[in-house]
Structures are given as structure tokens and as C-alpha cells.
Amino acid sequence: MFEKLKRRALRKHIDRNLGKRDRSEVNAPMKTLGFVVDERLLQDFEKLYDLAGYFHIHPNDVSVFSFLEVKKKQPSLRQNQVNNKHFTWKGDLHNQNAAEFLNRRFDVLVGFYAEENVYMDLLVSESEAKFKVGFSGADDRLFDLVLGMAPNDFNEFKKELKKYLEVLGKIEAQTSVTT
Question: What pTM did the predictor assign?
Fold first, then answer.
């Protein structure tokens, strides 16, 4: 019963966050990149940090925060991780690292999950990011760009994201010069 109340409260927070989102800088070029990752889909975060070179931004300008639903007591050494136990039954998030991450004004934030997940939806909705990218299957109200693919093919994801960021003018298109 408490889980049902918690989910309802989380949905209310999400709806409230959607109503107050500032979209004035949605067209800003990308200098910072953030990821909210479902750890069931991706555990090797180095792939995400390697995208800095692929998108021609500084590696320090890429940040990753993960979510892992806890079934039992599982200790974790990751500081940039949140789980369902960090949310109260009223829908409030109690994790200082998450609060700092969500208050950072990323130019682009990628919600790296592809199914309905009220906890991840709340993290994305609370983020102060200027432009948000997600995958089909998640709540598309949260995102400015929804990729119609599954996130499990990382190389395809990387190509698709780059293609759309170039089209939208967030990154400069890389043209090859043949002589």
C-alpha cells in the first residue's frame, strides 16, 4: 500500500515539475552533457564518458548519475547513485548527490532508460537541464527529443544522438574534406 502511495506522490511531483519547466534555453549549444542511467541497462559508464571526445566537449563536462532499484540490501560504493529507498512515501528525494546533480544546468541531459519508471521520470523532471533526450517507451512528456530505438545498442545510440544534435545545431556538424 505504501508503494502505491509513493508512486502516486511521485507522479504528482512529475506533473508539477512539467508545469514549471523553463524552456527558454532549449536551443543552447551543447557544452555540458549529463546522463541519468538505469543500471539494469548499462553498468559500464566509461562508454558515456568517452562520448566527450565523440561530441568534442571536455571530459569533465560529462556527468553520469544512475538509478538502481533495490530489492534487498545491496551495498554500493557509487556516490552518484540513487535507489528507490531514497524516495519517501510522499515522493520526496533524500540524496544530497542527486540534488546537486539535478540542480546542475546541463545543456543536454539523456534519460538512458526505455520503459516506464516513475523514479527515473522524477529524476529527469527535476533536472534543470536545458534540453532533454530520452528513448521511446519512457514518458515522452519529459523529453524534447525522443529516440525511437532501444538503448541496448550503444553504437547505434551514439550515431543517432550525434545526428540529431547536429541537425538541431547543438554540436557542429563534422564534414570530411576530400582532396
Answer: 0.89
